[in-house]
């Protein structure tokens, strides 16, 4: 039992640290996931959950930092009993979320490991159940996990880790994620990712006499009843399926993916930061002079954006895109994305608006 206890101690500690680091790398993405949960719960459980949405970013950084801090505290065995109870409360909460997602098919990606590792709702729930069992076992086998450092040393380590975790999360919010796990990361070719890597193959599931049977070719026997068609190699499917840009005149997706384009992405004018608009406007003029076409892409209505662009003097043609896709492309609102024939050459938070020299330099980097 001593060996099992120490294995669980190491496994739980490391996994919580890893999970927290992945989330705090992209606090805005974690906040978006929390907003999804609050929206679903406000409709299915109680309306008051909607009131949590404005605090999603705070909760994102707080919960991510808590995972890291508790994981480290567990590994150094600081305040072991209290830490294990806090871990138990946290994993019960996560288990409820993942079960709700899986059973009611509400939030199809729990965001447990951000965009780095995608798990299905049932896989996420299974993971949380395993962790729940491990933490319960640790609560009953604490005698095998005696402290190996002074309480003061454990306290100092925990305080330092807490400060660093919060600082890392806040910096990622004020700039961009340290590591971009999404399909729109710098160097990726959007047009290529919109195509399957190989032809998709399917199997057919049909029913006969109450029994399901699978076929790789559709049977000629008419006594079978079609149930569903399932991809055999889903990993070969397009990594990007929802990138579209349009305006009242029609679709402009291909235009965006041709030539040198500087996209100014405004998720929503209602939440757009305007502190660095002067820098963006200066960059727009310099880009036009350098033969780089600036384009705004927003999910706001035409009326709302017209009002916004006149307030901030953003004299750039604007187009529309899906709000969720725009948030996936870049976490900053507004944010800047540089494309050359659909290849992502650069991405900048509005706090890091580049000079035209940096933009030109980015065009020569990340060659395939």
UniProtKB/TrEMBL annotation:
Residues 3-140 form the Methylamine utilisation protein MauE domain. GO terms for biological process: methylamine metabolic process. Keywords: Membrane, Transmembrane, Transmembrane helix. InterPro entries: Methylamine_util_MauE. It comes from the Bacteria. The chain crosses the membrane at residues 7-24, 57-76, 83-104, 124-141, 153-173. It is a multi-pass membrane protein. GO terms for cellular component: membrane. It is found in: Membrane. Its main location: membrane. This is Methylamine utilisation protein MauE domain-containing protein.
């Amino acid at each position: 039992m001593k060996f099992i206890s120490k294995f669980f101690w190491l496994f739980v500690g490391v996994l919580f640290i890893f999970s927290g680091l992945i989330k705090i790398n992209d606090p805005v993405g974690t906040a978006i996931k929390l907003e999804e949960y609050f929206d679903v719960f406000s409709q299915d459980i109680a309306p008051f959950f909607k009131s949590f949405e404005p605090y999603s970013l705070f909760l994102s950084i707080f919960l991510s930092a808590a995972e890291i801090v508790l994981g480290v505290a567990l590994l150094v065995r600081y305040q072991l009993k209290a830490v294990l109870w806090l871990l138990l409360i946290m994993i019960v909460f996560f288990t409820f979320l993942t079960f709700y997602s899986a059973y009611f098919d509400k939030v199809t990606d729990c965001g447990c490991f951000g965009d780095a590792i995608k798990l299905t709702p049932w896989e996420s729930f299974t993971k949380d159940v395993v962790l729940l069992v491990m933490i319960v076992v640790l609560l009953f086998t604490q005698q095998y996990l005696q402290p190996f450092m002074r309480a003061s040393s454990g306290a100092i380590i925990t305080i330092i880790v807490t400060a660093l975790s919060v600082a890392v999360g806040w910096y990622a919010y004020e700039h961009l994620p340290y590591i971009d796990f999404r399909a729109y990361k710098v160097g990726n070719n959007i047009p290529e990712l919109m195509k399957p890597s190989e032809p998709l193959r399917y199997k057919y599931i049909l029913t006969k006499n109450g029994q399901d049977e699978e076929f790789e070719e559709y049977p000629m026997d008419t006594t079978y009843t079609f149930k569903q068609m399932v991809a055999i190699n889903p990993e070969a499917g397009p990594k990007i399926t929802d990138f579209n840009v349009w305006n009242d005149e029609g679709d402009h997706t291909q235009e965006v993916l041709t030539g040198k384009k500087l996209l100014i992405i405004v998720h929503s004018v209602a939440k757009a930061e305007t502190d660095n608009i002067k820098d963006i406007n200066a960059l727009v003029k310099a880009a036009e002079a350098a033969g780089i076409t600036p384009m705004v892409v927003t999910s706001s209505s035409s009326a709302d954006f017209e009002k916004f662009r006149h307030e901030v003097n953003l004299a750039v043609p604007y187009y529309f895109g899906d709000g969720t896709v725009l948030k996936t492309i870049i976490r900053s609102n507004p944010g800047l994305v540089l494309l050359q024939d659909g290849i992502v050459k650069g991405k900048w938070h509005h706090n890091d608006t580049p000079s035209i020299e940096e933009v030109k330099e980015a065009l020569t980097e990340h060659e395939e």
